[in-house]
Specification:
alpha/beta; 5-stranded parallel beta sheet; 3-stranded antiparallel beta sheet; globular
């Protein structure tokens, strides 16, 4: 059972394991207690690219080079995760110079490209970080992402994802993939870590 004690704009949230964390009423208004509880222990987030960081469209030049459209809200959210001590990681079945340039600009150093078998790649990153799946969040939209989604403490799936993948979601952002969905997940994690308000106040200075 979940208990909420509201006072002075904050709630003491007690999850199913009896761990308490102070959540603002704003956080509880935006996100469910279960999602916030699952997010508390997260130290690494695995992102797919197509259909998560992008809207899933694939554009190619006449030379056959892939072009991708990224969202600045998502990008800033990923930067904020790193400031909060949460590691963003990318595991994707595709590779392109546009993607690599974007991840470099965002400071994402843990990435695996061109791999359809995503679980071994994710496990290798967990080993590098000395973490386990109980400390991981995953965000994906199609069958290759299921091994990560079904193991992660928090599974995030965009509303445009394949229907069988949606069935495994703990959290589905209101914004669509490539248009702020990643930022909503970042907000969840920042609220759950207790660092959202401080980062917001710092940005307002």
């Amino acid at each position: 059972m979940t208990d909420h004690n509201l006072s002075a704009g904050h709630a003491t949230h007690v999850d199913q394991h009896g761990k308490a964390a102070h959540m603002s009423q704003a956080a509880l208004a935006r996100f469910s207690p279960d999602v916030l509880a699952r997010a508390q222990a997260v130290k690494v987030v695995f992102f797919d690219v197509d259909g998560v960081l992008t809207d899933g469209s694939l554009w190619f030049t006449d030379a056959g080079e892939a072009m991708k459209r990224f969202n600045t809200l998502d990008g800033h959210g990923i930067k904020l995760l790193q400031r909060a001590g949460i590691t963003p990681a990318v595991v994707t079945g595709r590779d392109s110079s546009a993607l690599r340039n974007r991840l470099t600009a965002l400071g994402v150093v843990h990435a695996r490209f061109g791999t359809e078998d995503k679980l071994p790649a994710a496990n290798a990153i967990l080993d590098e970080l000395h973490l386990n799946w109980s400390q991981a969040c995953a965000m994906g939209d199609d069958w290759p992402d299921l091994p990560m989604l079904t193991r992660a403490a928090l599974a995030c799936v965009p509303a445009t994802a394949q229907v069988d993948v949606l069935a495994h979601a703990h959290f589905t952002p209101r914004a669509s993939a490539g248009n702020g969905a990643v930022r909503e997940l970042c907000d969840v994690l920042l609220h759950a870590s207790g660092q959202y308000d401080a980062l917001l106040q710092e940005a307002m200075k």
